[in-house]
Amino acid sequence: MRTMLATAQSGSDFQALNESAKAAVRDVFSRLSISGRELDMPPMGSGDYKALDGNCVAVVISGHVSVVQGHTVIGVFDGGDLLLPDTNVIGPGSAPLRYGSESGAHVRLYQRDQVESAIASEPATIEAWNRALILQITTILRLNALHIRETVGEGLTTELFSAGKIIIAQGAPADDVFSMIDGLAQVLVNDQPVAELRPGELFGTMAALMGSHRRATVRAIEDCKVVRLPKDHFFELIRSRPNAVHGLLVDMASSINELNEEVVRLREQLNHTTNA
């Protein structure tokens, strides 16, 4: 198991923990007298990733399976890792995690109810399952901590903006890049709304990359929690962690697409008004 930006820096202690987690998964499924069905994930872009069946438990057989929330890759799983789709357990209004592979992967799916029944039949299997889950959770927690240290490091600040407050002002110097942690914000160009920003999205990147002043205003629609990263630190992150570029490009492409759609909508409105 890996998370974006947190692969080669994890050290031998993590590698040993990761292998223990995989061994625990193998041990559990070697005890179960159930069969799974094979799923081939062809190479695809993140925009084509899909939620897995919430009635299944999955194990990665080969390749790398990426997990996406919104436009952000939040984890990459490889052979031997356990996948637990959240489709049937998340609350209303929440989008499930989506899974896919840029280079292709092979996954085995098991019916969740069959897995649960088989596990419950033997105390030793229950213990093995609990051990596998604990190791998986422990691995994810350690990777998350490493991910935060690597992507943030020194110089990061977390800021709160109440609804209506300006996060970025059009025309201001682009000294920082931002990531939306929680809340909803609106992007305005010349006081005209053109897009919205949601948790997991980077913003302020275009002006920082181009060395220009801010081309848009970002205003909090509801209370927002954002991470502010100085642009020099952001550039160093891109240079030292090339995998970060993927998520950045996805976010920027999404922003451009939203702007293009808004331009088309405004042009159609103008044509309708002119012809009326």
Task: Describe the protein in words.
With 276 residues, the chain is an alpha+beta fold. The protein folds into two domains: 11-151, Sandwich (Jelly Rolls), CATH 2.60.120; 157-275, Jelly Rolls (Sandwich), CATH 2.60.120. The protein has helices at 11-31, 112-120, 123-151, 205-210, 231-240, 244-275, and strands spanning 37-41, 56-63, 65-69, 72-77, 82-83, 98-100, 105-111, 157-161, 166-168, 176-182, 185-189, 192-197, 202-203, 217-220, 224-230. A four-stranded antiparallel sheet has the order 1-7-2-5. A four-stranded antiparallel sheet has the order 8-15-10-13. The chain is elongated.
DSSP strand count? 15
CATH level-two architecture of the largest domain: Sandwich
Give the mean pLDDT: 79
Class by SSE composition: alpha+beta
Query: N-to-C SSE series?
Result: HEEEEEEEHHEEEEEEHEEHH
The CATH homologous superfamily of the largest domain is termed Jelly Rolls
How many strands, which pairing sense, and closed or not: the largest β-sheet?
A: 4 strands, antiparallel
Rg over C-alpha atoms, rounded to the nearest angstrom:
22 Å
CATH class of the largest domain: Mainly Beta
Shape: elongated
Q: Roughly how much helix do the residues carry, as a percent range?
A: 25-40%
User: Reading side by side through the largest sheet, how are the strands ordered?
Assistant: 1-7-2-5
Query: DSSP strand (E) fraction?
Result: 25-35%
Structural domains: how many: 2
Low confidence ranges: 2-10
**Tally of contiguous helical segments:** 6
How far from one another are the termini? 59 Å
